[in-house]
């Protein structure tokens, strides 16, 4: 029998029923996902300090070592007392020691396009080192890749290497240097050449640290700018320490960031060729940057992910601790969170 076409109002009801079924299906999917997320526990809250080895790190501001021209050029002369006074230096180191920080990375960036490291105030460096007994001061040098850091240029690499060696020779109590070049894609051979140059030129016993990229993972939306296992291992073989920047990950949900931190922690420790590892956690709030959401990427969510990974099995011998980015944006609440959720208090 030939089927007669539905009248217009019948078609409308059929469409409405179809849309209703689609809406119900979507609602069910959303409900199941919400319930799954509610019961998902990728992080682990630990408050007994079991993962604190008392050898943590932190990135510091330029003013602690920088020369006077940095203050004048950047209209920061009003901040002189904040960095230059003996009281300010003493207060900084009291805070760092109270939070079990032993490795400090004062900012000395960016290098010039010719390869020169920013000048330091020599007397200030020595005053700073006078107060740093028992801690390692490791200036953080480098800069934006392709503008101030021309690592593909041999002349730039040679000048940069010479300046780094000269800085450590002039101030022998400095423990070493940390290299930070951003962005730096996985596989870049020029960065490996730079590390080889530095390793050969630095005075004996000086630490060569790298502010390193974490691996790409399922939870990270920008895998092309992070280091795969072969490249991570190549970098590790050429340095003494990796302070891994475990942030700027584009995460919008706290639990996915916790899972990302757990994944990164496991992979970094497995790929590190036995070199010392500091796991970088964020305390900064760069609002409006598309790849950083401070309401998610913060110390409150970073630590549970790290704890989850470290609690699975005993951490390897080269796990050194965490590194905080950065001192100048860490407030009292965040210091309190660190004490409650990471530091060993007994």
Rounded to an integer, what's the Rg over CA atoms? 25 Å
% residues in beta strands: 15-25%
Measured distance between first and last alpha carbons: 87 Å
Order of helices and strands: HEHHHEHEEHEHEHEHEHEH
Please tally the β strands and state the result: 9
Largest sheet: 8 strands, parallel, barrel
Derived structural class: alpha/beta
Oligomeric category: single chain
What overall form do the CA principal axes indicate? globular
Overall residue-averaged pLDDT value: 91
Low-confidence spans: none
Q: What's the arrangement of strands in the largest beta sheet?
A: 1-2-4-5-6-7-8-9
Total DSSP helices: 11
Helix content range: 40-55%
Question: What does this protein look like?
Answer:
There is one protein chain. With 346 residues, the protein is of the alpha/beta class. It has helices at residues 8-39, 68-73, 80-84, 86-98, 122-131, 154-170, 189-201, 229-237, 254-271, 299-312, 332-341, and strands at 56-60, 101-108, 136-137, 140-144, 176-182, 207-212, 241-245, 276-282, 319-325. Strands 1-2-4-5-6-7-8-9 form an eight-stranded parallel barrel, surrounded by five helices. Strand 6, helix 8 (229-237) and strand 7 (241-245) form a beta-alpha-beta unit. The longest helix is centred in the first third of the chain and has 32 residues, at 8-39. It starts with 7 loop residues before the first helix and ends in a 5-residue tail after the last helix. The model has no long low-confidence stretch (mean pLDDT 91).
